Amino acid sequence: MLPVPDSKLASKPAALPLRVLVVDDNEASAMTLHWAVELLGDDVRSCYDGKSALKLAADFKPDVVLLDIGMPRMDGIEVCARLRAMPDLAHVKIIAQTGWGDDEMRQRTKEAGFDLHLVKPVNMHVMEDMLWLLRLGASKRPEHAA
After folding, report:
1. Which Pfam family is one of those matched by this entry (predicted)?
2. Contact 5, 116 (CB under 8 A)
3. Most exposed residue of 25, 65, 76, 132, measured as fewest CB within 10 angstroms of its CB?
């Protein structure tokens, strides 16, 4: 699991932009998060269901997936498990974003392969700090090396 930073890191020097995939069946929530992350300088794509998420992830090759749990037809737990089974996406950080914060759901997301479990509404300062830390890690990947 990723640590949740407790201090504001946004004033730190910029790192390389991330490729971020936002998945939420609530289109307004997805677009709000999309725009917020895009304002941080990251390359963002959004979709609204699990099937589209799998296809878009395979094509876009995100660094981070911000994934809603409670979606119809294919929930976020199943999407995460399927993403984890895709060899090209082994490095992806998958962050659960859900209204469910109980211990049972946190255990389910951990077992499914999520890296972090955030409860909605997500504090945007926490999101900004988390993405900044992930940008630092992305800059160390071979495809980003100078």
Report:
1. Response_reg
2. no
3. 25
CB 65: neighbour CB atoms within 10 A? Answer: 27
CATH of 19-140, one of 3.30.470.30, 3.40.50.2300, 3.40.50.12780, 1.10.1040.10: 3.40.50.2300
Q: For residue 74, give the amino acid letter.
A: M
Are the CB atoms for 20 and 128 separated by under 8 Å?
Answer: no
* Bridge partner list, 65: 21, 94
99-110 pLDDT, tens digit per residue, is: 887 889 899 999
Cα-Cα end-to-end distance for the chain: 29
- Tell me, what's the pLDDT at 138? 64
> What's the pLDDT tens digit per position in 17-34?
999 999 999 999 999 999
